[in-house]
Each structure stands twice: as structure tokens, then as C-alpha cells.
Specification:
about 0% strand, transcription regulation, Putative zinc-finger domain-containing protein
């Protein structure tokens, strides 16, 4: 793995699991390090985190038609 976050491959596919704290410790560190150096992935992370927070507000009754 590279020490420069800009050299890491983008982490977009891992962001959902990162927000849900479902990655192993190595992957969590990789994503966190990458987010410090990639504005695009950081913007995507914010969107995923906001969506996750909004989903947490839903109740079962909200999902029924």
C-alpha cells in the first residue's frame, strides 16, 4: 500500500460499509487515509453518511404503502 492517499485506488465501493462500520480494521484505515486526500471520495462519503442518517430515522410504518 502507498503512503500517499492520492496513490490509493478510489474507495467509493467501500463507503457504504465504512459508514456502517462494517469493514475490517485494515480496510477502515485504508478508507480513512484515502478520504484525507481525495475530495471526490470525501464528497461521496458525506452523501452516503447523510443518507444513512436519514434512513435511521425511518420507522416500519414509513415503509408501508
Amino acid at each position: 500500500m502507498s503512503a500517499d492517499p492520492g496513490d490509493d485506488p478510489h474507495v467509493r465501493p467501500l463507503l457504504g460499509a465504512y459508514v456502517l462500520d462494517a469493514l475490517d480494521p485494515e480496510e477502515t484505515c485504508r478508507v480513512a487515509r484515502h478520504l484525507r486526500g481525495c475530495d471526490g471520495c470525501t464528497r461521496d462519503y458525506v452523501e452516503v453518511a447523510e443518507a444513512s442518517a436519514l434512513l435511521a430515522l425511518l420507522q416500519a410504518e414509513d415503509l408501508r404503502e
